[in-house]
Design a protein that fits this description.
The chain has about 110 residues and is mainly α. Helix content is about 70%, strand content about 0%. The protein is globular, with a radius of gyration of 18 Å. The protein starts with 6 loop residues before the first helix and ends in a 7-residue tail after the last helix. The relative contact order is 0.12. The mean pLDDT is about 95.
């Protein structure tokens, strides 16, 4: 059975990884935001010319599925590092955003 990891554990591992390589000096909010954008673009690139149907099946392709998972991991890693540097609780920020969106976009009334 795979150990369940939480955000704090992953952020600590990312910070330790960067510290061991003396990379913290490069992990400024500006640099991390740029790196996040680049990694998100690499994820988009995989889907760029796929039809909607092909994109829905991408994880069934044994050549493409690992690439998608790697790019998702890269995006998440940079997002977690960005949040760590700025002191943002990513889960609290997401919960607050969902709550705001629920207020802004109420579900339609049943007919």
């Amino acid at each position: 059975m795979t150990e369940r990891l939480d955000v704090a554990v992953l952020q600590r591992r990312l910070a330790e990884f960067a510290a061991a390589r003396d990379w913290e000096q490069y992990h400024t909010p500006k640099n991390l935001a740029a790196a996040l954008s680049v990694e998100a673009s690499e994820l988009v690139e995989i889907f760029q010319w796929l039809t909607p149907e092909e994109s829905a099946q991408v994880m069934q392709d044994p050549d493409t599925a690992p690439r998608v998972a790697d790019e998702v991991a890269d995006v998440l890693a940079y997002l977690l590092q960005f949040c760590e540097v700025l002191g943002i609780d990513v889960l609290a920020a997401l919960a607050a955003k969902i709550e705001r969106n629920e207020g802004r976009f109420p579900k339609p009334e049943a007919p």
